[in-house]
Amino acid sequence: xxxxxxxxxxxxxxxxxxxxxxxxxxxxxxxxxxxxxxxxxxxxxxxxxxxxxxxxxxxxxxxxxxxxxxxxxxxxxxxxxxxxxxxxxxxxxxxxxxxxxxxxxxxxxxxxxxxxxxxxxxxxxxxxxxxxxxxxxxxxxxxxxxxxxxxxxxxxxxxxxxxxxxxxxxxxxxxxxxxxxxxxxxxxxxxxxxxxxxxxxxxxxxxxxxxxxxxxxxxxxxxxxxxxxxxxxxxxxxxxxxxxxxxxxxxxxxxxxxxxxxxxxxxxxxxxxxxxxxxxxxxxxxxxxxxxxxxxxxxxxxxxxxxxxxxxxxxxxxxxxxxxxxxxxxxxxxxxxxxxxxxxxxxxxxxxxxxxxxxxxxxxxxxxxxxxxxxxxxxxxxxxxxxxxxxxxxxxxxxxxxxxxxxxxxxxxxxxxxxxxxxxxxxxxxxxxxxxxxxxxxxxxxxxxxxxxxxxxxxxxxxxxxxxxxx
Length: 471
Ligand SMILES: [Zn+2]
Description:
With 471 residues, the chain is an alpha/beta fold. It is built from 15 helices and 16 strands. It has helices at residues 40-58, 74-83, 87-104, 120-132, 169-173, 208-220, 234-249, 280-285, 290-298, 310-332, 343-359, 364-383, 389-406, 418-432, 436-448, and strands spanning 5-7, 14-16, 25-29, 63-67, 136-138, 144-146, 184-188, 197-199, 202-206, 224-230, 254-260, 263-265, 268-269, 306-308, 451-456, 459-464. Bound molecules: zinc ion. The site of zinc ion (ZN) has 3 residues, from loops.
């Protein structure tokens, strides 16, 4: 198996990935807070994790990928109150929207999407341990804070000077009666009008940071291989995750930290607070194809800042048009001549260059350069009739192979078994008749038979579910 090298934020080094266990690579990604639709800056971070997971699997690793869903926090409580609904209803609504966008963008579905409200007990247990060990303390209102003075390594990930610790947004919002301004809330005491859980550590609700420690431990164990997120999560969120996890377990938390740079728009970071956000659904409505948006968000190296613009979308659309044209040309190509003996080496070299680029800290620019070098070469051979029918089929097979990682090619023209096709046709008819119940029933039936159906601007699209390797 090839060696994959990744840039670890904590050490600042680019190091070979050596899985902690021999049964696969365990990956945790900070997921969405489901209080509104995610914007494409969020999706840049999720799609970079998708690229990582796809590449690991393409290289033969078994991967267990966990992405948390934050379904309890101040914004969700405010949003639910404003809408006059429960927090669970609000969170479920935006979780469904997130998954629809993720499917449209062909994001691999994580193996586990744990919801915070389903792990309250695990969080309380973890906080109980921190209290027992003196790493946490209670305040009069029933809240519990992490005592940063008990954790001298605090600030390593973000390279902070402990004496001049910058007070982050979430820290300020958490200020009650803390011993130290740097301390952060693990647990928030009950307040009128707020959801509250009764646990072994008392009534209240969890803080944000403890979620990711508890849920990663629940699904991946105390130590795991890779943790991903956007760079804005380094401090305080990931710094806090390290402190509370390692203080509780006494074991190293994460082997490799990967952080994705910001998505910029008009020269400033795309963020809800600055108002310059674009959401996938808005772009699709404006005629941007989901594939082009996926390509645009993936095509720049994850540690480089990416500027979202009409030009970047146009460039993505043009790149896909070249790929689509080649795929169509190869599929239609017929030439009875003998195989060209140089073709296997061309294909093998292209695959090796593509793989080596991604092994090098997911160098997508070089990987795409290898793809387009191959596109040029194949177009030249098609024009000169320098391929046999079999050569063309081999080339198409290679493009499909590389697309296991990229996820941008058009769907295959592969035929479905007749009984499955009949279910798909029935679903088209049900939707045309606006019979959503029948449409959903047929979608579920197809799903149980290994066919996932998405509704896109171009109509219904299906794909076979790939077997997920056990983690
Ligand atoms: Zn997190």
